[in-house]
Amino acid sequence: MKVKLILLTLMAGAAVFYCCQGASSAGDAALASMPEAQALGSFSADSAFSHISTQVAMGPRIAGTPTAARCAEYISGRLAAYGADTVIKQNARVITYTGQTLPITNVLGRFNSGAKRRVLLLAHYDTRPWADHENDSSLRYEPIDGANDGGSGVGVLLEIARNLGIKPSDVGVDILFVDAEDYGTHAEEEVFGASDDENWCLGTQKWVTDMPYDPDHRPVYGILLDMVGGRDAVFHREYFSNRDASVYVDKIWAEAKALGYEDVFINKIGGNVIDDHVYVTRAGIPTVDIIENTNRQTSSFPPTWHTLSDNLENIDKNTLQRVGNTVLNVIYKEKG
Ligand SMILES: [Zn+2]
User: How much distance in Å is there from the Cα of 275 to the middle of ligand 1?
Assistant: First the structure.
């Protein structure tokens, strides 16, 4: 994924406005330190972490490679083991910005498939082919581990799947793992002034052309998890999510606050990110991107983003736990 820099200056005004509207009193802050809600599932950060470690041990899961195919097998195997009603694989071909054709696979696991009202959860499992944001220019074509960017979303969603297998939700849940999110233009090959937005999220762009839903049975909304395992990660209300799916952003951020995580799920508008949620929203399922924005002022990505430091050492189980508890609570409170 990438930040859409062009709009950042426009957003600055909106961010300040939102910030001032949302200012809370000292009394609110004292109350917020006491969690009002309990975790409704039994989300294990250790289990989520072990899925990340398994993925990293496979090597870089670059779209179109045998390792990515092995990762798709691992995901579908876990979904079946955790009791998904069905596991659907969508095999397709996509064309990258260099003109290369890649075979890709998206994997969908359906839980409580009889429920009419459904929620979609998704994450990308492919990893960035290049560390194009490394300081050392000689390393910028090396592949990355993608422990956070790729691994963490998958780890949290598989642990959510395990929970849904043990304790079914009232609402139907579709969990989608997409390929080829992170094959967008290498930072050193970008052409100034040209939009390369469509070079990202290739797997999702393919999925939305052939979704297994008729218009009356689409998920009501979606939640995308991307970079949800970083150290001391904080999550702002990502700009496009806030614009197109604000009622669901409200729901998720309120649940996080009730769990005592309001210093992590910051109730302020963040940067605008070209990510899978943009295409799912465009396809008629308003989708929220829970994505790390470390810097509270500029909402920028964490320093490990698209570098060789995006490795297991920089995964924080506390972050996995907070995101897992929050999303599971949202799901368990939905009526089918
Ligand atoms: Zn990425």
Answer: 9
Distance 173 CA to ligand 1 centre (A): 25
pLDDT, one tens digit for every residue, the chain (336 residues): 787 644 433 333 333 322 223 333 444 444 445 677 899 999 999 999 999 999 999 999 999 999 999 999 999 999 999 999 999 999 999 999 999 999 999 999 999 999 999 999 999 999 999 999 999 999 999 999 999 999 999 999 999 999 999 999 999 999 999 999 999 999 999 998 888 999 999 999 999 999 999 877 899 999 999 999 999 999 999 999 999 999 999 999 999 999 999 999 999 999 899 999 999 999 999 999 999 986 666 668 999 999 999 999 999 999 999 999 999 999 999 998
Give the span between the Cα atoms of 174 and 180, in whole angstroms. Answer: 19
Report the C-alpha gap between 152 and 266 in whole angstroms: 20
Cα(201) to centroid of ligand 1, in Å?
10
C-beta atoms surrounding 131 within 10 Å: 23
The second-level CATH assignment, the architecture, of 2-333 is 3-Layer(aba) Sandwich (3.40)
Give the tokens for residue 93. Answer: 């071909």
E-only strand ranges, the chain:
2-3, 86-95, 101-111, 118-124, 172-178, 221-226, 235-237, 265-269, 273-274, 287-291
Ligand 1 centroid distance, CA of 184 (Å) = 9
* Contact between 241 and 291 (Cβ < 8 Å): no
Distance (Å) from CA 332 to ligand 1 centroid? 29
The pTM of the full predicted model, rounded to 2 decimals, is: 0.91
Give distance in angstroms: CA of 306 to centre of ligand 1. 6
Q: Rounded to the nearest whole angstrom, what is the distance from the C-alpha of residue 148 to the centroid of ligand 1?
A: 9
CA of 49 to the centre of ligand 1 (A): 19
Tell me, in angstroms, the distance from the centre of ligand 1 to residue 151's CA.
11
| Region of 280 on the Ramachandran plot (φ > 0 left; ψ -120 to 50 alpha; else beta) | alpha
Ligand 1: distance of its center to the CA of 163 in Å?
27
* Domain extents in the chain: 2-333
